[in-house]
Write a structure and sequence with these properties.
Distance between the termini of chain A: 54 Å
Number of helices of chain A: 9
Strand content of chain A: under 5%
Radius of gyration of chain A: 20 Å
Shape of chain A: elongated
Largest interface: A-B, 47 and 47 residues
Number of strands of chain A: 0
Helix content of chain A: over 70%
Oligomer: homodimer
DNA sequence: TTCATCCTTAAATCCAAATTCAGAAAAATT
DNA sequence: AATTTTTCTGAATTTGGATTTAAGGATGAA
């Protein structure tokens, strides 16, 4: 029996992370109707090994999606690290919410989930929670900027925040569907156009 | 052999419409991984009968989706029938683009498609075309209103039109996922809020 | 009546996926 | 090194439809 929570549990959580990541990639590739074998293949294991850790595939899939959303959200927060100017923060947040390209696995997973959410309550609940968290994130950002006098909001922050998240979501789908004239850059500019209207701030595109 | 294109072809196209509708409902319920049997069940037929008309299920599904999108689009145009005031037209268009509720089968089908589009080129192409048609619809509406001096556009009409369609799409997903505080009315008001900013028009909600 | 169309029934075929488990392999413990 | 525990494989087993096919019944038009 383990006496410490040291190496053993560290290995356990590492294995767990492996399985979650494999499940995420498998779902990104095959959708919510992903098979046990397909998860096993992505994990470099056999189906029996997956079952050893997760007797019920559905549990693994739900955990994988929760982890995927958590990562998506915390990555966005991390992108704001060290940036204090509200305008700059807004621009970075908008940029980090869009998929980098058609091959963005993180967003591909979210799209697959969104398609199933209308039929699957669990996925609907997860996505709703993610949406609300992102709205709260934007709302804080907008309120802070307004308080500092940087933004002059054209509507209440909840309305603007919801619309910003909604725009991100929708353009995420379009980018993943390889819209010929809507790539990451164009979509970001479209959202920024709304953000400028809503905040009465020129929101300069960061020059790097 | 048929000598006229009369009754016989009328029956053919009626049968075809039946199959397409059955496929639409089956896909709305089971997603893009819908089974032949499930389509047959919705059609009140056996799988053999479906195969008699459509030897390849994929062909039927693609046709069904094309028909579904066509209907969605033409329904929106029809809702504008007889309305001449640009502001009123804009309000009606926004309203007609959102699902009536979680049980809206038309939108449920589109959501299922959107989730698969990141993995299925055919569905991606269809949805991209629908998006662009809707953008064009809004663009015409906006340009007309601007020309008449009713709207004072805060950005080029393409930008506004894209953002309006994007907002509709995103809130459609949220409504279908039963977001507890985002129903048809709230979503419409959120989009209208953007539309007011973008057109510099108060856009009164129609009172009925 | 004849013919073509449409559809069902039922069997044949097929196969993919989940499940199970004995025991190998690896890792930890002593 | 020996023992124990954990992890995983390999292969058989089971399961459960799902597609496919074809013979023929039903229907309505000619």
């Amino acid at each position: 029996m383990a006496k410490s929570t040291g190496r053993e549990s560290r290995q356990k959580s590492a294995k767990r992370a492996d399985l979650l990541e494999a499940a995420q990639r498998a779902m990104a590739e095959h959708g919510t109707a992903v098979r046990l074998n397909q998860v096993a293949e992505h994990a470099g294991l056999t189906s029996g090994a997956i079952l050893y850790h997760y007797p019920d595939l559905q549990d693994l899939l739900v955990d994988a999606n929760r982890a995927g959303m958590e990562r998506f959200y915390t990555d966005r927060l991390a992108a704001l690290e060290g940036i204090t100017d509200p305008a700059e923060r807004l621009v970075v947040t908008i940029t980090s919410g869009l998929p980098t390209g058609q091959d963005d696995e993180e967003v591909r997973l979210l799209c697959a989930l969104g398609g199933a959410a209308a039929r699957n309550t669990m996925y609907a609940v997860l996505l709703t929670a993610l949406f609300d968290r992102q709205v709260a994130m934007y709302q804080t950002l907008l309120d802070t900027g307004a308080f500092q006098g940087v933004f002059n909001l054209a509507a209440d922050s909840l309305t603007i925040a919801r619309n910003l998240v909604a725009l991100e979501d929708a353009y995420g789908y379009r980018i993943m569907a390889s819209h010929p004239t809507l790539d990451h850059g164009v979509a970001a500019e479209l959202i920024l156009d709304y953000a400028r209207l809503a905040t009465n701030h020129p929101l300069p595109v960061e020059n790097r």
